[in-house]
Amino acid sequence: MESPKDILDFLTTSSRTVCRNNFHYTRTLAFIHYTHLRLQRFRKFRFEIKPIHDQVFKLIIQKYCEDKKIIIDPLSCVLLNGHWINPAKGYFANICCSDSTNKYRVRFLEFNTDEQDCDVIYIAETTLHNVEKTLNCADYSKFFI
């Protein structure tokens, strides 16, 4: 199977003058280019997932809510030890699996620890079970954002 990059190179180099005004050619080229960029982005946002017991996770979320003066459902969010989200609002995103077309929408909250793990997602066991059920995938290494 050819990669999207190979197909993109082929389409951009072959018969430019004939296909330049063809709407279907242009649309196909744009779609493949978009798909290629999305795949590159997905490779960047792979994280290690560490499950936390539900009660411990709930206590962490309660402490977070008291500090920020907001209300959050503990089973609809995950904690990310990273620096690329807005700490004031959080970040909504979909967790996807490379084997499935389904998505699971969660809210990412900033969670700083003493460790230097910046690519770690802390998730409640119940939420992780719901994600696995929705995506039909139990292999964490296939999850991406």
Strand composition percent: 15-25%
Return the structural class: alpha/beta
User: Helix count, per DSSP?
Assistant: 5
How do the strands line up in the largest sheet? 1-5-2-4-3-6
Question: Uncertain runs with pLDDT below 50, 5 residues or more?
Answer: none
* Shape category: elongated
Q: Profile the largest sheet.
A: 6 strands, mixed
Radius of gyration based on Cα positions = 20 Å
The counted number of beta strands is 6
Verbal overview:
By secondary structure, the protein is an alpha/beta fold. Helices cover 43% and strands 22% of the residues. The longest helix has 22 residues. The protein is elongated.
Outline:
By secondary structure, the protein is an alpha/beta fold.
